[in-house]
Amino acid sequence: MLELRNIRVIAGLAWRDALRSRLFVTLILLTLTGSIGLPLIVEGDGTIPGKVHILLYYSLSYAVSILAIAAIWCGCAAIPREIASRHIHLLLSKPVHPATIWCGHWLGISSMCVVLLGLSGAIVYATLLWTIRPGVASPADLELLEHEVLTGRRVIGPLDEDLERRTHEELAARRATGQLNDAISDGEALRTLRKHLQRRRSTVGPGQQTHWSFLVPGHAEQHENVSLRFQFSISRPRGQAVIGTWRLGSTPIEPAREYYPNLPQEIRVPAGVLTSPAEISFELEGNPDDPSILFDPDTGIELLIRESGFVPNYLRSLLVAACLLVALTAFGLAAGGLLSLPTATFATFAVLTACLLAHYIGTDYWATPESGNNAGSPLIRVFGHVTDSIVTLVNRLTRPAIQQPGMRPMADGELISWEQVAHAALNYVVIYGGAFALAGIWLFRRREIGTAS
Q1: Hey, where are the domains in the chain?
Q2: Tens of pLDDT, residues 242-296
Q3: For labelling, which of 65, 278, 291, 371 has a CA lying 20 to 30 Å from the CA of 355?
Q4: pTM score, whole prediction
Q5: pLDDT of residue 363
Q6: 25-39 confidence digits (pLDDT tens)
Q7: How far, in Å, CA of 249 to CA of 273, rounded?
């Protein structure tokens, strides 16, 4: 039976052990090094917004990474160290329930990591205020920062209501003409054809025009802080620009001008001209012999609408990171409840690496539907089917964790909503943390502790 008083006492002992082992001081020094040293080492584009982006993204990402490693290592070490020092025998003879011991360590290590995360966040914020202090940042820089970085803007992607219908029609047509191998499943073919149709729709040739439709919230139609963010690639050298015109309906958003490829760019949408749905188009000027441009199908064009100030958005991003640290602590404790410290540490980092690799492979695992025509022997096909199933299963199990917002959206001025914080708490703390807790307590109760001599 869980006893809150005993959980608090064991959590306090975990803090005391961390302080005695100088772990807390070491982590403070590491987070200070990243929070203050990284902006001095990593060079941006030489502008104040570039420095602020590096400060927010790299410094906080470094701090979260260090604390994540510390959470896993401390979780893996907590129970093996109790067993090695024979303290566990004293606790179990009280008697103290194994679940109480496990949850006490979870609370102690998690709270230590969260406190250190808050300290790192405060240092980064103080460094930010120093970076944009009067006399260093010009009024134009401050205006640009407030509009693009130090803000919380909701990201709205374009609608594509007919995509699924067109994808199924394309699949049926290719099946009928024999362009697809029968060994390829409909799911794999649909996934690849969907990306193919998105790329084809996002390609614009010289003298051509393409358009997107956006569903705009009612409160944003008269909003004064709305931007259009886009990025495209081209077969020309990186430094060569193209000339085009963005329009909202039939009204030009701004006069025709040059836009550079492979760089995220923003233009402001005039206030009071948005409607829902908003029809935005881009017309590319040039000769017929000029190359085409390609917008990224997923993030090539987005509407950004300000809905929050920077400080609330900054705090919400730290809350999401805190939920991640809680889940990683539980993961380390679950492994440490069964294995020795070296084995548990190796196993946890191996599992995390495998999950990240599966996610990386699974994002674009199937190159084209036609690739199945070169299938080898039955043994190779069976092996491919098994590996595909493993990658798919791992992706499904880890998708709720992978899809949580990191530090990059906050550093890009994107909104971290309370809904996203709630999802992070539900997924990281309740689902993953709860599953690790149940598994860790069950394994710990069945572990052979041994007798004190």
Answers
A1: 4-150+309-445, 163-306
A2: 888 998 888 888 888 888 888 888 888 887 777 777 888 888 887 777 778 888 7
A3: 371
A4: 0.82
A5: 55
A6: 787 788 777 777 776
A7: 9
Residue with tokens 């640009």: 144
